[in-house]
Specification:
The complex is a heterodimer of chains A (283) and B (359). Chain A has one domain. In chain A, α1 packs antiparallel against α4 and α2 runs antiparallel to α3. Chain A has 283 residues and is mainly α. Chain A is built from nine helices and two strands, in the order ααααβαααααβ. Chain A has a two-stranded antiparallel ribbon with strand order 1-2. Chain A is globular and about 60 Å long. Chain B has 359 residues and is an alpha/beta fold. Chain B folds into two domains: 182 residues, Glutamyl-tRNA reductase, N-terminal domain (Beta Polymerase, domain 2, 2-Layer Sandwich), CATH 3.30.460; 146 residues, NAD(P)-binding Rossmann-like Domain (Rossmann fold, 3-Layer(aba) Sandwich). Chain B contains 14 helices and ten strands. A six-stranded parallel β-sheet of chain B has the order 7-6-5-8-9-10. Chain B has a four-stranded antiparallel β-sheet with strand order 2-3-1-4, with helices on both faces. In chain B, α6 runs antiparallel to α7. The longest helix of chain B is centred in the last third of the chain and has 25 residues. The chains are: A mainly alpha (283), B alpha/beta (359). At the A-B interface, α5, α6 and α8 of A face α8 and α13 of B.
C-alpha cells in the first residue's frame, strides 16, 4: 500500500500530521496545557518521517537535493525547522515550542501543497553535478530552517513579553517559557543560523568566482542582503544594541523577509540560467 | 453482621474560628499523649489523628456505636472543652461521608487556600505516624492509600493546583516567568516589614541565588538579614547597587517613591540584556510609575499581584465541581470495597489492602 504512494502523497501525510499537531496543541492550550508535549512530539515525529520519505523519493527521482522549485524549497525549509526542533526542543525543553513548530510547519507545507503552480515545473540539473554547490544550497536552506525556529522563539518572546507587560501572565501564556530562556535560545539560534549561512555563502563563493558568468545577480544580491541583515542583527545583539522586544521583532521580520525573498530569487533564475523549465519530477 | 463503622470527628476552619482552633490545637507532645490514650480506648480498632493549623480530625474505625463519642470525650478532657462547647464547632461524619471528606481534604479541596498541596504531606505524615505505631489496620490503610492516589489523580487531571493564590507566591511565579530558574537570580528586599519578609522567604524557598536587605534603618536591615541568612545593604547604596540585582522587592513605608526613574535607567545601562523585575508591595508605591515603561523592566504592584491571585483563586474554584465529581466516583468505589469488610468486622486484612501498598 505504502509503496504506491507518490512523493506528494507522503508530503500531504506529513502536512496533515503537522496540522494535527497544531490542532491538538491548540486544544491542550485551551484546556490548560497538561499532558500535551508527548502527544505533539509523537505527531511531529510521524510528520517528520513522512516528509523525509517524500523528500527522499523526490531526491532520488531528480538525482540530488530536491531544491528545484518554490514548492521544494518550502518543504525543505519546514523539514529543516523540524530537524532543528528535535535538537533544540530536547536540549532546552522549551514548553510550547513543539506546538509553535508544528504550526509553522503546517502553514508552510500546506501552503506549498495548495499552490500547484509552485510545483508545476522545476529546474533540471540546477547544481550542474557540482557537489559543492549542492552543499551550498542545502546549507543555505538549512540556515533558513534555523531562522524559522528563531522566528518562532522570537514570536514566543513577544507573546510572553506582552503578557507580562499587560499584567496578564495567566491562561495560555502561563505555558510559555521564561523571557530569559527565550532570549538565550534566540541568540544561540541566531549564532547557528549566521554560521550556517556564512559557510553556505563561502562555499558558493568558490563556485561564483570560478564561473562568474553563471552567477544569478538577483539571487546573489538578495542572499547577501539577507545574510548581512542577520549578521548585523547578531552584531548589534552581542554589542547590547538590539535587545528584548526589538530583537524579537527583528527575528520575526527578517524571517518573513527571507521567506518572501525566495520568490524573486526563483523568478529570476529561468532567463539567466538558460535551462528551460523542466516538468516536475516524476511522482 | 458487625457494627463496625468508619467515622471522622473533629473541627476545621470551616466550623471553628481561629480563636477556637488555637484552643483545639495539639503540640507534638500533646498529640503523642492523645494517641496513647486513644490506643487504649476499647472499641476503637483503628485511628489516625490529623492535626494542622486549620484542622484537627480523628479518622477511626469503631467496633461499637458509642466509640466516636468516647473519642470526643477523651479529646475534650485533654483540651478542656465541655462536650456542649465542642459540639458547636464539631465536624462529625460517618460511612461514605467520612470517606468523601478524607478524599477532599487530601486533595486540598477542603483547605482554606483552595487546592494547596501542603495538606497532602500533612495527611501523609499523620497517617505515617499512626501506621508506624500500629494504630491503623486493614481499613484505614486502604482508605488512606486510596485517598493519596485520588489526590494525585485530581492534581494531574484538573487545574485545582494551578496558579499561585498568595501574594508572595504570585510574585515568585512571575519572577519564574521572567528568569526561568531562580538559581541565578539575586533578590534585593527594600524595607524590613512583614510582607516583604514573607516574599523574600518565598524566594529563598524557591532557591533564589542570593538575598540582600536594605532598610532606611541599617540596624533593622542587619537584624532581618541575620534572620534570613542574607546580606544587609545601606539604603543610600541602593541606587548604585540596583544593577546587581534581578528582582527588587519593595516594601518600605516611605511617603514617596524610593526607586526613581533615573536610578533604574542607570541600572539598565549596566545590564541591558538582563531584565529587572520590581515587586512593589508598598503603599504608597515605592517605584516611580514611569519605571514600568522602560524596556526590559517589569513592575508589579500590590493591586496587580492581588488581581492575579484572585484570578487564580477563581480559576481553582471553577475546578471544584470537576474535582468533586472525580473524588465522589472514587469514594463510591472505595466504599464498595470496604463496606463488606466493616460489616464482617474490620480486623481481617482485605486482599491487597495491606500497609505495603504504594501510596
Amino acid at each position: 500500500m505504502f509503496a504506491s504512494l507518490t512523493d506528494r502523497s507522503w508530503l500531504w501525510l506529513a502536512a496533515e500530521c503537522y496540522l494535527a499537531g497544531l490542532l491538538l496543541g491548540t486544544y491542550f492550550v485551551v484546556r490548560g496545557g497538561r499532558r500535551s508535549a508527548g502527544w505533539i512530539n509523537t505527531i511531529i515525529a510521524a510528520g517528520y518521517l513522512f516528509q523525509l520519505v517524500g523528500l527522499s523519493l523526490r531526491g532520488r527521482a531528480v538525482g540530488g537535493c530536491p531544491l528545484g522549485n518554490t514548492f521544494e524549497i518550502f518543504q525543505f525549509t519546514a523539514w529543516s525547522a523540524i530537524t532543528l526542533y528535535f535538537f533544540v526542543g530536547v536540549t532546552f525543553r522549551l514548553s510550547l515550542l513543539g506546538y509553535f513548530t508544528s504550526s509553522l510547519a503546517a502553514a508552510v507545507t500546506l501552503l506549498s501543497l495548495s499552490i500547484p503552480a509552485w510545483d508545476a515545473t522545476r529546474r533540471a540539473h540546477i547544481f550542474g553535478g557540482n557537489a559543492w554547490i549542492e552543499l551550498h544550497a542545502a546549507l543555505a536552506l538549512f540556515s533558513y530552517g534555523v531562522f524559522a525556529l528563531l522566528a518562532l522563539t522570537s514570536g514566543m518572546f513577544l507573546l510572553r513579553h506582552f503578557s507580562l507587560k499587560s499584567k496578564h501572565p495567566g491562561g495560555p501564556f502561563s505555558f510559555l517559557p521564561s523571557i530569559l530562556d527565550l532570549d538565550h535560545i534566540s541568540v544561540r539560534l541566531l549564532v547557528a543560523g549566521v554560521t550556517l549561512m556564512t559557510t553556505s555563502l563561502a562555499v558558493g563563493a568558490v563556485y561564483w568566482l570560478r564561473e562568474p558568468e553563471r552567477v544569478n545577480l538577483t539571487k546573489l544580491l538578495v542572499t547577501v542582503a539577507i545574510w548581512a541583515a542577520y549578521t548585523a542583527a547578531l552584531g548589534l545583539r552581542l554589542r547590547g544594541r538590539l535587545l528584548s522586544k526589538r530583537f524579537a521583532w527583528v527575528g520575526v521580520g527578517l524571517f518573513a523577509a527571507a521567506l518572501l525573498s525566495l520568490w524573486p530569487i526563483d523568478a529570476s533564475r529561468y532567463p539567466r540560467e538558460g535551462n528551460p523549465p523542466a516538468p516536475a519530477a516524476p511522482r | 453482621m458487625s457494627d463496625h463503622s468508619l467515622f471522622v470527628l473533629g473541627a476545621t476552619h470551616h466550623t471553628a474560628p481561629l480563636a477556637v482552633r488555637e484552643r483545639l490545637s495539639l503540640g507534638a507532645e500533646g498529640a503523642a499523649a492523645l494517641r496513647a490514650e486513644l490506643a487504649a480506648l476499647p472499641g476503637l480498632e483503628e485511628f489516625t489523628l490529623v492535626s494542622t493549623c486549620n484542622r484537627i480530625e480523628f479518622y477511626g474505625v469503631a467496633a461499637t456505636p458509642g466509640v466516636a463519642a468516647e473519642v470526643q470525650q477523651v479529646f475534650c478532657d485533654r483540651q478542656q472543652f465541655t462536650a456542649a462547647e465542642f459540639e458547636q464547632f464539631r465536624l462529625s461524619l460517618s460511612g461514605p461521608g467520612a470517606l468523601q471528606h478524607l478524599l477532599e481534604v487530601t486533595a486540598g479541596l477542603d483547605s482554606q487556600m483552595l487546592g494547596e498541596t501542603e495538606i497532602f504531606g500533612q495527611v501523609k505524615a499523620a497517617y505515617g505516624a499512626d501506621q508506624a505505631q500500629g494504630h491503623t489496620g486493614a481499613v484505614l490503610n486502604r482508605v488512606f492509600q486510596k485517598a493519596f492516589q485520588a489526590a494525585k489523580h485530581v492534581r494531574t487531571h484538573t487545574a485545582i493546583t494551578e496558579g499561585q493564590v498568595s501574594i508572595a507566591n504570585v510574585a515568585v511565579e512571575l519572577a519564574g516567568n521572567i528568569f526561568g530558574s531562580l538559581a541565578h537570580t539575586r533578590i534585593l528586599l527594600l524595607g524590613a516589614g512583614d510582607i516583604g519578609e514573607k516574599t523574600a522567604k518565598a524566594f529563598q524557598s524557591r532557591g533564589a541565588a542570593g538575598l540582600s536587605v536594605a532598610s532606611r534603618r541599617l540596624e533593622r536591615a542587619m537584624e532581618l538579614a541575620d534572620a534570613l541568612g542574607a546580606f544587609a545593604l545601606p539604603f543610600w547604596l541602593m541606587p548604585v547597587k540596583l544593577a546587581d540585582f534581578d528582582v527588587v522587592v519593595c516594601a518600605t513605608s516611605a511617603p514617596e517613591a524610593v526607586v526613581t526613574l533615573a536610578a533604574v535607567q542607570a541600572a539598565m545601562v549596566r545590564r541591558p540584556a538582563r531584565p529587572l523585575f520590581f515587586i512593589d508591595l508598598a503603599l504608597p508605591r515605592d517605584v516611580d510609575a514611569a519605571v514600568a515603561e522602560l524596556e526590559n523592566v517589569f513592575v508589579y504592584n500590590l493591586d496587580d499581584l492581588a488581581k492575579i491571585a484572585e484570578e487564580n483563586r477563581a480559576a481553582r474554584a471553577a475546578e471544584i465541581g470537576k474535582c468533586r465529581a472525580l473524588l465522589t466516583e472514587r469514594a463510591a468505589a472505595l466504599w464498595r470495597q470496604i463496606e463488606p469488610r466493616l460489616q464482617a468486622g474490620a480486623g481481617a486484612d482485605p486482599a491487597g489492602a495491606g500497609g505495603g501498598e504504594p501510596a
